[in-house]
Amino acid sequence: MNLHQSKLYFEDIDRALDHVVGMEALRNKSILVTGATGTIGSFVADALIRYSQKNNADTVIYLGGRNAEKLRHQFGIQKNVDFLQYDMNAPIGFNVHVDYIIHAAGNAHPAAFNGNPVGTTMGNIESTFRLLEYLRLHEGKRLLYVSSGEVYGQGDVSLDSFDELYSGYLDVLSPRSCYPLSKRMTENLCSSYWKQYGVESVIVRPCHTYGPYMTETDNRAHAQFFRNALDGENIILKSAGTQMRSYNYVADCAAALLSVLIQGISGEAYNLANPHSKLTIAELAKKIAVAGHSRVVFEIPDAVDLANQSPIPKQVLNSAKIEKLGWKPTFDVEEGICHTLNILRGL
């Protein structure tokens, strides 16, 4: 469905913008959002467009994606919004001035990690290198890199949460590690550009983020749960679901990203998680089932399912650092789930 027809969707955008300190810094600036059709990139793009139009801010927003026509169909023709052909695996083919880049493009679902580990690795690293170099040559202000909580690897499960200084184990010989290892390397590349060339960058490590923008190819567990519930089907869980995760509704995520873009310290990383939304995958499935009037069914996983499962038993992030910027989550997991379902139902 077209989310722009949902009143609730725009209410969530306004709620997110109300919790970003310093949005005036983006007035009369130009911003490129890559991955603008993804879960995070789409909401951030809509939030920037909403801010600019409601406040006559004259913020120019460039939305980058592999299919510019798809972007045009999704967002429509709007003032100060332009669509750029952008493939993270190819050299940059546009030439526009941008003050800020929000780099949210990348393979973010397990099937891509297992089916295309080389493309996942090189896409993360090379795309960020090209964007940092673009900023350097075009004298842009700052890049925000959307990393991942997976960079912590297999952490100590006795810890309550992981802060930004923590580093857990990753099997460097496992192709499944292509995603977190390349995210680590790309974070280092951002810091290196800041040290060597003075190109500003800030890094955000989101926890598991959910919301109404989901593609049909997204095979992450929570995306499948939402699709099952919307289709009136049982929610299928192909594991015991004991892995503990931090979760974040996409509106809170977008507010955090914009807060870090504006106020974050260059060269530093910030965890992005709702400290009140810590639950196992099975608990999340049950909450979505309750909200969607469905039920959870356990099935024996096949070889493909097992290959796509994350080896990380606990991924709970400490959000104290980002909260010092003035950000705080406003959606608990029950409200986030209900809003996701209701927006997708057209409410």
Give a concise summary.
The protein has 347 residues and is an alpha/beta fold. Helices cover 40% and strands 16% of the residues. The chain has a single domain (3-210, 247-274, 317-333), classed as NAD(P)-binding Rossmann-like Domain (Rossmann fold).
Structure description:
- The protein contains 12 helices and 13 strands.
- It has 347 residues and is an alpha/beta fold.
- It has one domain (3-210, 247-274, 317-333): 3-Layer(aba) Sandwich (Rossmann fold), CATH 3.40.50.
- The mean pLDDT is 94.
- The chain has helices at 7-17, 39-54, 68-75, 110-115, 117-138, 178-197, 221-230, 250-263, 281-291, 303-308, 320-323, 333-344; strands at residues 30-34, 60-65, 81-85, 100-103, 142-146, 200-206, 208-210, 235-237, 244-249, 269-272, 278-280, 296-298, 314-315.
- The protein is 40% helix and 16% strand.
- The protein is globular, with a radius of gyration of 19 Å.
- It starts with 6 loop residues before the first helix and ends with a helix.
- A 7-stranded parallel sheet has the order 3-2-1-4-5-6-10, with helices on both faces. Strands 7, 9, 11 and 13 form a 4-stranded mixed sheet that branches. A two-stranded parallel ribbon has the order 8-12.
What is the count of DSSP helices, taking H or I runs of 4+ residues? 12
How many domains? The number is 1
CA radius of gyration is 19 Å
Specify the overall morphology. globular
Strand content: 15-25%
> What is the CATH level 1 assignment?
Alpha Beta
Largest sheet: 7 strands, parallel
